[in-house]
Amino acid sequence: MKLLLAAALAAAPALALAHDLWVEPAGDGFVLRLGHRGGELLPVDPAKVKAVRCADAGGAAREVLASARFAPTEVRFPGPCSAVSVFEDGGAWSLTPDGEVNLPRTRAKDAVKAWASRQYAKWVDARGPRAGAVLGDELELVPVTSLARAREGDKISLRVLSAGRPVPDAVVAVDHRTIGETDSRGEVRIRLRAAGIQSISTSVRRLHPTPEVDAEVLEASLTFEVGR
Predict the structure, then answer these.
(1) What pTM, to 2 d.p., does this model score?
(2) Predicted confidence (pLDDT) at residue 11 exceeds the cutoff of 80
(3) CATH homologous superfamily for 2-226?
(4) Phi, psi at residue 100, to the nearest 5°?
């Protein structure tokens, strides 16, 4: 049992990062999904989606959550947008000998670890003037390299920011496969291995001891379209 608990404790952050939240174009609007892109989709809890922002080509952003249409495994909202930002507050999670529960430590029986989960999903028009804009999310991925001419096989640089500041040592994944961590400038370089919609994600874990949780786990995704 001690060995099992030790393994569970070590894996706790990874357990919290088991699924991506991402947004991509759909018809004349956009769709938000949770799970694995191209694979299993999970239910989206309407109560946890706190903000959906749509930015125009000039940078002005409007809140469109009120016009969003919720379905069991997706959220659809109207465009047009040059950039989109979605915030989901996952609440407190606890790891117990019986598995994960969406409860703070104070309400979970025999909790051995607890964390607060917050996820941010971002989409940008790769050929638009707002592709490299900083939206100011608590955690976000921002292209350093221009995406306008990025094609399959090219390398691009991305920067991970938290409230506008670079985040070193952030874990970065492409299509849910970890490729490395950001450097001291919060940057990482990746190769675009496929054309079409590209999904990149990042995550950080911060100690934040309170009676309810031990840490905060922040996740962010960036999607954009890559040309052939």
Answers:
(1) 0.89
(2) no
(3) Immunoglobulins (2.60.40.10)
(4) -85, 145
